[in-house]
Amino acid sequence: MKLFFISDIHGSIYYLNKAMEQCKKEEPDYIIILGDELYHGPRNPIPKEYNPEAVANLLNIYKDKIIAIRGNCDSEVDQMVLKYPIMSDYSMILYNGRRLFLTHGHIYNEENLPNISKGDVLIYGHIHVPVAKEQEGIFIINPGSITLPKENTPHCYAVLEEDIFRIKTLDGDTYKEISIA
Q1: Spatial contact of 39 and 78, defined as CB atoms under 8 Å apart
Q2: Percent of the chain with pLDDT over 70
Q3: CB-based contacts of 153: which residues, under 8 Å, 6+ apart?
Q4: What is the pLDDT at residue 29?
Q5: What is the CATH number of the domain that holds 169?
Q6: I need a surface site. Which of 17, 27, 132, 160 has the fewest CB within 10 A?
Q7: Which residue segment(s) compose the domain that 22 sits in?
C-alpha cells in the first residue's frame, strides 16, 4: 500500500495543484490530509492564489481516496463544502503491523504524544516543518506544509511505501527519509 501525505494547504489552489501533480505521479492508494485545508488562519499571510472554493472542488474529486483530519483552522463550515469527513481530531491506520496515528498537531504532537506504543508512528502537520525521526521507539513524521513552509524549509509532501517515509519537495525530490521497518 502506498500513502500520500499533505498538510497545511491553507486554501492555496496554486500549491495544491503542484501537490496533486506529484500525487498523480506517485499513484498512491490513499491521500492523507493532516488538516488546515481551506482557511489560511489569522496568524498566516494570505497564500498564493488563495481560493478555498477551488481547493474544495479539487479535493472533492478525490473524496473516495482521502482520509483527513481536522486542523486548528478547519471548521464546520469547511465540512459543509467538502465531500469527505474532516472533523475528527485524529484517525488511525493499521499499516504492516503498526499503528499510524494521524493528527494535525495542535493537540497531539511530539511534546504531547497520544497513547501509542513503541514501533507506532505519529504523523502530524501544524508546525509547517518537515520531520522524520525516531524518539524513544516511536516514529515521528511531519510532511511539512505544501503552502506555507517555515524555518527556511521547502514546500513538501510525504509518501509512505514499503516501510519507507520519504518527505519530498513539490518537485518530487527527496528531502528527508526514514525507515519504519
Answers
A1: yes
A2: 100
A3: 128, 129, 130, 144, 175
A4: 98
A5: 3.60.21.10
A6: 27
A7: 2-179
CA gap 155, 21 in Å, rounded: 14
C-alpha cell of 38? 481551506
Type of residue numbered 28: P
Name the grid cell of 35: 488538516
pTM for the structure as a whole: 0.97
Q: Which residues of the chain have pLDDT under 50?
A: none
Spatial strand order in the sheet of 2-6: 66-68, 30-33, 2-6, 156-161, 164-169, 174-179
In the chain, DSSP assigns E strands to: 2-6, 30-33, 66-68, 90-95, 98-103, 121-123, 130-135, 138-143, 156-161, 164-169, 174-179
Looking at the 3D structure of the chain, how many domains does it have? 1
d(CA 79, CA 95) in angstroms, rounded, equals 27
What would the pLDDT profile of 131-173 be if each residue is shown by its tens digit? 999 999 999 999 999 999 999 999 999 999 999 999 999 999 9
- Return d(Cα 112, Cα 131) in angstroms, integer: 16
User: For position 161, what pLDDT does the model report?
Assistant: 98
What does the alpha-carbon distance between residue 141 and residue 38 come to, in Å, rounded to a whole number?
22
